Amino acid sequence: MPDYARRFLFLAALAGALAVVLGAFGAHALKARLDEPMLTVWQTAVQYHFWHALALGLIGLLALHLRDACWLMRAGWLMLAGLLLFSGSLYAMALTGTRALGMVTPFGGLAFIAGWLALAWAIRRG
């Protein structure tokens, strides 16, 4: 198995576990502490976190079958950056109430989009 495939599968597993933990934390510990809009922000962060953890796993699995390691690695790192910037900024905003942190969120969204496009290109190239 290529090292980068193992790396993205490992990151996917960690990110998935963390998404479950943070989802449960939001549903149980934060439900009584956050107002409804901030709880919705938290839930949005968890949803994007979970889906992009799965995307990292997909990239790791595709690495076993596709030749284009360069674009797959770009896709993986962009997905990870998006996860940190998008979901991370939303988690921080929900916990602190600092809405200015939301200015970081679109950069994470752009990283997600670029990651999906890089993944599409890697698949197209085979």
From TrEMBL:
Topology with respect to the bilayer: Multi-pass membrane protein
TM region positions: 45-64, 76-94, 100-123
Entries under Pfam families matching the protein: DUF423
InterPro entries tied to this protein: DUF423
Coiled-coil residue windows: none
Keywords from the named record: Membrane, Transmembrane, Transmembrane helix
Cellular component terms (Gene Ontology): plasma membrane
PANTHER family associated with the record: TRANSMEMBRANE PROTEIN 256
UniProt similarity note: Belongs to the UPF0382 family.
Protein name in the entry: DUF423 domain-containing protein
